[in-house]
Design goal:
Helix content of chain B: over 70%
Strand content of chain B: under 5%
Number of helices of chain A: 17
Number of strands of chain B: 2
Number of domains of chain A: 3
CATH superfamily of the largest domain in chain A: P-loop containing nucleotide triphosphate hydrolases
Shape of chain A: globular
Distance between the termini of chain A: 56 Å
CATH topology of the largest domain in chain A: Rossmann fold
Strand order of the largest sheet of chain B: 1-2
CATH architecture of the largest domain in chain A: 3-Layer(aba) Sandwich
Radius of gyration of chain B: 24 Å
Largest sheet of chain A: 6 strands, mixed
Helix content of chain A: 25-40%
Structural class of chain B: mainly alpha
Structural class of chain A: alpha/beta
Largest interface: A-B, 38 and 28 residues
Strand content of chain A: 15-25%
Oligomer: heterodimer
Chain lengths: 518, 362
């Protein structure tokens, strides 16, 4: 990279505060055309805030922004567009009932007449240039997540954006879809566009980016060329100290069947089959990973075991140490608990299901235990002690025990939830996307906690989205595809591409093959 | 340029300083409006308002009675509102409770002993009020119907039922009203404590305030109600039976409204009309929100509303103004008090200049 070029974007001395929180403190950043910049940092380090100021959502308290060497004032997303800056957010902003072309031209100024044919032709042209696959006539509700994301990117290009910001674009994609995305991003870079990508996944940074810039606690730490650094160095820079990047995977000790699921079929409230004839066994002292594209039945599977999802067919058997079998189908969480089944569940929706955002730590600890005792009054002493213990042991950063959990950061919310769930000494631990949105440091804390449970003989069912982590952490991986079991592979010698294929096709072969599961 | 941002929680004295400032500003604005519109001395008008509320011991007792009844309904709404079940049917639930009490007094007045009759009145009134609230609750729990509309409609049904019985029991025939029931025998009248006609009602509500505070804050039921109100998913996840909690909570809410009905009919009015609830079912909604669903804070909120109402009445008679003028003052004062809550949670911030170019583009 030649250093005498004028950067496409230069942010100088940017400061942004929210109340008393300093989100960005005197940050400098340069982005060049023909380059992919990875912006790294832990949760709450101010990456998204910084990018939101570039895309006109926030306005900096202090500092200046230069576009192609000229100072620019960006007060709104429209201003950002006028400077050719476009951002793809984690949550897509598309109208479901419109076609791709309609979404792409939506909100553009122009003559009185809408010429979709002409627009479609231009969309096809853009797609050919960069290798996208978009059918302009296809409705958004018919699209997969990755297709929707493609539409978002084409939308920006159609509007002439040449500085693109992508906020965790791969969080929702399969490995194959990620490869495809990276290919078009490289094409766009070679075409002279400036691209900024925010991601937590180190191997993606190494794979894709030309340069990395690191933020830590709102401050700019430094930058380097990707080819001259490695994951360890980048992580140390993000965290500010040495961290180990290996996930521990002890051998399971004396695994015995704990939960046996047979022929499980579940329909959601709209009558759509979400789980189709699913069978597997979760063993004690073992982590069973569940892989799959988002929405292919993981949520329903865990909720069915936890007694929150009506089951159409099949059985879920809890096997006690002495071999007694208890059927869990048709029982609600209260009933399951009263049978002496110590089942803990860390749901995907932390604040919408696992915790109550407006309640404080003590009251959230009480959710599981408030019925204890015969008194009509609640006892807050034990929950307060538990909250103290969790804050202490898991290093939850909170102002006090009476802070509403909604005010905590994502990682701390998750620690509170996991802390409460493992406090009841479970025999089965169900966990859905336990590290979603968490930075490396918090993620490793959670992996450690899960491994401790495994060593204590708990049967862990771990639903995850990062295949690399699943392959490093789990003893066995069950791959779901459209509600069917695509296969169960041993975690130690599984091949990432093979698992990726199994996620999109039952059995993982090149052609559609019928389910091999009985 | 300025923008709004959320404050951190203020210490209580700062929050109250803001509220106090709001009241002072409200009084100044009211003074200006009074002078401009009527030409009266605003201080005299304020003094008259105070007179209307606390001028004589009888007026003070009336104010306390009104305060107690309004507070009682607000307490009844508390558990439902905490559960985010918007019970707008307080009016109808009071009417049904009052109707049950009146029916006992009229139909059974001379047939069973007075003590037994009063117990029966209370039980039936509570039961009928509870039924009136449980019907919408059941439909909400079972089929997720809209409770706001349902409870509201139940008010009209209750009004019509009462209107029907008023005609059935009217005294004298053709007058269209019932008049004082059992005036000579005082059968079914709730006992009076000493010479104080309203003291019983006030004491009942005082006890109820404390009970409700403890119930919401320290009981397992209260905790379940909060969980269901914040997130039904979380409630199900921890094994709370949401449907059961909804029905149980509305039983309680309606029961208290029914109790208010018997306090009004048996305790003070000794008659039944379609307007006996006096709009309290709706005014109490405002009280509940003003007090952020905290039973103890509701005492202050009810006092404020009742004081303003009594004061407004007094100035309209004392200065021979029409009633609308009192309402204007009430409106201004409420506007500032409710508005001050906004400034307790948010603050105005003025933006610093960001360089010459920035200014040019504004």
């Amino acid at each position: 990279m030649e250093n005498n070029r004028i950067p496409a974007v230069r942010m100088e001395n940017i400061t942004k505060t929210f109340g008393t929180v300093v989100a960005n403190n005197k940050v400098d950043l340069e982005i060049y055309r023909g380059e992919i910049l990875a912006l790294l940092g832990e949760n709450g380090s101010g990456k998204t805030t910084l990018m939101n100021m570039l895309s006109g959502i926030y306005f900096p308290d202090e500092g200046r922004i230069f576009i192609d060497g000229e100072e620019a004032t960006i007060r709104s997303p429209k201003d950002a567009f006028d400077h050719g800056i476009g951002m793809i957010h984690q949550h897509f902003k598309l109208v479901d009932v419109f076609s791709a072309a309609e979404n792409i031209v939506l909100g553009l100024e122009g003559g009185g007449r809408l010429d979709l044919e002409k627009s479609s032709a231009r969309i096809r042209e853009i797609c050919e240039n960069y290798g996208f696959e978009v059918d302009p006539k296809q409705k958004i509700y018919d699209m997969s997540v990755s297709q929707k994301q493609t539409v978002e990117i084409v939308k920006l290009l159609y509007r002439g954006a040449d500085i693109l910001i992508l906020d965790e674009p791969t969080a929702v994609l399969t490995p194959q879809e990620t490869d495809k995305l990276f290919a078009v991003l490289r094409n766009m870079r070679d075409d002279g566009k400036a691209i900024i990508i925010i991601t937590h996944k180190m191997h993606e940074v190494e794979d894709l980016s030309d340069r990395v810039a690191v933020l830590r606690k709102g401050e700019y730490v430094g930058q380097m060329l990707t080819k001259e650094t490695n994951a360890r160095e980048m992580t140390n820079m993000m965290v500010g100290r040495q961290v180990s990047l290996n996930i521990e995977r002890p051998e399971p000790v004396d695994p015995k069947p704990r939960v046996e699921v047979k022929g499980l079929t579940v329909r959601n409230s709209d009558g759509i089959v979400k789980l189709d004839d699913v069978s597997f066994t979760a063993n004690t002292g073992e982590i069973l990973g569940i892989a799959g594209i988002s929405g292919c039945g993981q949520k329903e599977l865990l909720e069915a075991i936890a007694g929150l999802q009506p089951v159409e067919k099949g059985s879920i058997c809890y096997i006690e140490d002495d071999g007694t079998r208890e059927e869990l189908v048709g029982k609600d969480p209260m009933k399951i608990a009263s049978m002496g089944v110590a089942l803990s569940f860390v749901p995907e929706d932390r604040l919408g299901m696992g915790l109550i955002g407006s309640m404080d730590l003590t009251d959230n600890m009480m959710l599981r235990s408030f019925r204890n005792g015969k008194s009509v009054f609640t006892d807050r002493k034990a929950p307060r002690e538990l909250a103290e213990k969790v804050v202490d042991e898991l290093e939850v950063s909170t102002q006090s025990l009476s802070t509403p959990v909604r005010r905590l950061s994502g990682g701390n919310v998750q620690k509170v939830l996991v802390g409460r769930e493992i406090a009841s000494a479970p025999t089965v631990l169900l966990s859905a996307y336990a590290v979603r949105g968490l930075d490396i440091n918090s993620s490793y804390t959670i992996y450690d906690l899960i491994n401790k449970q495994k060593k204590a003989g708990v049967a862990v069912v771990y639903v995850g989205e990062d295949l690399d982590v699943l392959l490093e952490l789990c003893d066995r991986i069950l791959v779901l595809c459209g509600g069917k079991v695509s296969g169960i592979v041993p975690g130690r010698d599984a091949d990432k591409n093979e698992v990726g294929l199994m996620m999109t096709r039952v059995g993982g072969g090149e052609k559609d093959v019928p389910s091999v599961e009985a | 340029m300025f923008h709004l941002s959320k404050r951190k929680a203020l210490p209580w004295y700062q929050a109250w300083a803001i509220r106090l400032a709001a009241i002072v500003i409200a009084l100044v604005v009211c003074a200006v409006v009074t002078t401009v519109v009527t030409g009266l001395n605003p201080l005299k008008v304020y003094a008259t308002m105070w007179q209307g509320a606390f001028g004589t011991s009888r007026k003070t007792w009336v104010l306390l009675q009104e305060l107690a009844m309004l507070l009682g309904v607000a307490l009844a709404l508390t558990p439902a509102f905490r559960m985010k079940f918007w019970n707008l049917g307080g009016e109808g639930q009071i009417l049904m409770g009052g109707l049950a009490a009146a029916a006992c007094m009229i139909v059974l007045g001379d047939k069973i002993p007075n003590g037994f009759l009063i117990i029966l009145m209370i039980v039936l009134a509570i039961a009928l009020g509870a039924i009136w609230a449980v019907i919408p609750a059941f439909f909400k729990a079972r089929w997720n119907t809209n409770e706001t509309l349902f409870t509201l409609m139940m008010n009209y049904v209750a009004t019509q039922i009462v209107a029907y019985y008023v005609i059935v029991w009217e005294v004298p025939k053709g007058s269209g009203k019932i008049g004082i029931i059992n005036q000579s025998t005082q059968i079914g009248w709730l006992p009076q404590i000493g010479p104080y006609k309203y003291l019983l009602n006030i004491l009942v509500i005082a006890v109820l305030t404390i009970v409700m505070h403890v119930y919401m804050k320290y009981s397992k039921h209260g905790y379940e109600i909060s969980v269901v109100g914040e997130s039904q998913n979380t409630a199900r996840y921890v094994g709370i039976k949401v449907e059961k909690v909804i029905v149980r909570t509305l039983l309680l809410s309606g029961a208290i409204c029914g109790l208010i009905g018997v306090l009004l009919v048996g305790g003070t009015d000794h008659t039944i009309t379609t307007t006996i609830a006096g709009g309290r079912g709706f005014t109490a909604v405002m009280v509940a929100w003003l007090a952020k669903f905290q039973p103890v804070a509701m005492v202050a909120a009810s006092l404020l509303l009742v004081f303003l109402e009594r004061g407004a009445q007094e100035i309209s008679t004392a200065f021979q103004l029409n009633h609308a003028f009192g309402d204007i003052l009430t409106g201004i004062i409420l506007f500032f008090i409710i508005g001050s809550e906004f400034f307790i949670s948010y603050q105005l911030k003025f933006r610093r200049n960001t360089g010459k170019e920035g200014e040019g583009n504004v």
